From TrEMBL:
Residues 104-292 form the Phosphoribulokinase/uridine kinase domain. Residues 7-22 have a biased composition (Basic and acidic residues). It comes from the Eukaryota. Residues 1-73 are annotated as: Disordered. The keyword ATP-binding applies. Its EC number is 2.7.1.48. Residues 30-39 have a biased composition (Polar residues). GO terms for biological process: CTP salvage; UMP salvage. Gene3D superfamilies: 3.40.50.2020, P-loop containing nucleotide triphosphate hydrolases. The keyword Endoplasmic reticulum does not apply. This is Uridine kinase. Keywords: ATP-binding, Kinase, Nucleotide-binding, Transferase. It comes from Diploscapter pachys. It catalyses: cytidine + ATP = CMP + ADP + H(+); uridine + ATP = UMP + ADP + H(+).
Length: 437
């Protein structure tokens, strides 16, 4: 589609054509490394040859879902940088209010137009610590058996507004804007179903919400500070979608094409393209349009600073705490301090070093919380238990009391979850403040 090109696209159509050639070349590069072994020519020839009924789906590769693009909230950008995209656990000021609202960027565009790529590039260039990406995929409705069967036969319309739970989406976005935590469903494209484990997300300094129908509901649009429409040529979107759906979403060629022409293309015309009218910025060609992405980043940074965003604030606060010194002397009697072994000090050194990278901090913090939880296990109720050794001798050991033992963690409890689960086999973690979805 030729866009009204509200964003920089200096030389108009001529350049767009040139860039299209460039893009096709990129697609050819992708084609060679296509692990299914098929080339674009084969795909197109295959399409020409067979208008046959949809075959039952062949499962190829696994895992592609709303959680998989930033698996465990850790996004590795194309340049290899790791960015934590879960948002910021709620922080409160002295009056118990959460800190400022996130700057919300909505990204809309056709399937495989490059929405995720644009979102990742914005995040990479912004270089701010607290960011969240919320994807519309998370809000696909749960299918009943009949709908599931249709989906398997590429005969379910995932591109119609009715396929999404907009109420849940609106509620979730509203909570994240208030800096509150949410449980967000994780969608698996290979099974057309939600994962058993939802992901927990928080508000952030910047929240990016992306999806094919991101601009469909006016109430949701009102929650966005900036609306970006990614406008990529239809043929290019189809060729990228073929590649992606076959390689990552366990689809076969005929199924992808059937679904595309029956549902995806018409829905683009009827519901997605009209979203362009709501957009503040249109990005022609998607992720490779660095000029547009740089302008977006500049505008977001300006707005964040206007709202009082101060990159050095957390560093200043940390310095204040360091200056206050250790609070061991006036600590309560029942406070137990972990022994400052060389290992513990070594882990702290990593965590406190300003040059330590974000993912290393997460890694070493997890090691530290393991030590903490191991130590805490000594305070659990144990009862004596007689056991028999392999040589039939008896021995009196200890078993954890079978009674339920509740432990309240006031702050940063979730960061301890992995370590806790690794040490305590039968633990249940509850997040009382989180709204269940
Ligand atoms: N500029 C590009 N050149 C080649 N492939 C691209 C480009 N941008 C995106 N892709 C590929 O196209 C597919 C869809 O991109 P993605 O950013 O996930 O789009 P969306 O989020 O709109 O579905 C992915 O497989 C991605 O790697
Ligand atoms: O189970 C499903 C759910 C969705 N789809 C298709 O996915 C795209 C949206 O994802 P993008 O990452 O924006 O491309 C949409 O066009 C649906 O047709 C699916 O095929 N199966």
């Amino acid at each position: 589609m030729k866009s009204s090109m509200k964003t920089p696209d200096k030389d108009g159509e001529k350049k767009a054509d040139k860039d299209l050639t460039k893009q096709v070349k990129i697609s050819e590069g992708v084609e060679q490394s296509n692990s299914s072994g098929s080339s674009v020519h084969e795909l197109i020839n295959g399409f020409n040859r067979s208008p046959s009924p949809p075959a039952p789906r062949k499962r190829l590769r696994t895992v592609s879902g709303s959680g998989s693009k930033a698996e465990h909230h850790l996004l590795t950008t194309k340049s290899g940088r790791k960015i934590y995209t879960k948002g910021r656990p709620p922080w409160y000021d002295k009056k118990g209010n959460t800190l400022k609202q996130p700057y919300v960027i909505g990204i809309c565009g056709g399937s495989a137009s490059g929405k995720t790529t644009v979102a990742e590039k914005i995040i990479e260039k912004l270089e701010i610590p607290w960011v969240t990406i919320l994807s519309m995929d998370s809000f696909y409705k749960v299918l009943n058996d009949e709908e599931h069967k249709q989906a398997e036969e590429s005969n379910y319309n995932f591109d119609h507004p009715n396929a999404f739970d907009f109420d849940l989406l609106q509620e979730t976005l509203a909570r994240l804007r208030e800096g509150k935590s949410c449980e967000v469903p994780v969608y698996d494209f290979t099974t057309h179903a939600r994962d058993h484990n939802p992901k927990i997300m928080y508000g952030a300094d910047v929240l990016i919400f992306e999806g094919i129908l991101a601009f469909h509901r006016p109430e949701i649009n009102k929650m966005m500070d900036m609306k970006v429409f990614v406008d990529t040529d239809g043929d290019l979107r189809l060729s990228r979608r073929l590649n992606r759906d076959i390689n990552e979403r366990a689809r076969d060629l005929n199924g992808v094409l059937e679904q595309y022409f029956r549902f995806v293309k018409p829905a683009f015309e009827s519901y997605i393209a009209p979203g362009m009218k709501a957009a503040d910025i249109i990005v022609p060609r998607g992720g490779e349009n660095d000029v547009a992405i740089n302008l977006i980043v500049k505008q977001v940074m300006t707005q964040l600073i206007k709202r009082g965003y101060d990159q050095s604030a957390s560093a200043k606060y940390r310095q204040e705490l360091i200056c206050r010194g250790p609070m061991v002397d006036d600590a309560p009697q029942n406070l137990i301090l972990i022994e400052q072994t060389p290992q513990v000090r070594g882990l702290h050194t990593f965590i406190r070093d300003r040059r330590t990278k974000r993912d290393d901090i997460i890694f070493y913090s997890e090691r530290l919380t393991r030590i903490l939880i191991e130590e805490a296990m000594n305070f659990m109720p144990y009862t004596e238990k007689e056991i028999e050794l392999s040589n039939r001798q008896k021995e009196i050991g200890l078993r954890k009391n079978t009674q339920i033992c509740g432990v309240a963690i006031m702050r940063a409890g979730e960061t301890m979850e992995n370590s806790l689960r690794a040490i305590v086999k039968d633990c249940k973690v509850l997040f009382p403040k989180i709204k269940r979805i």
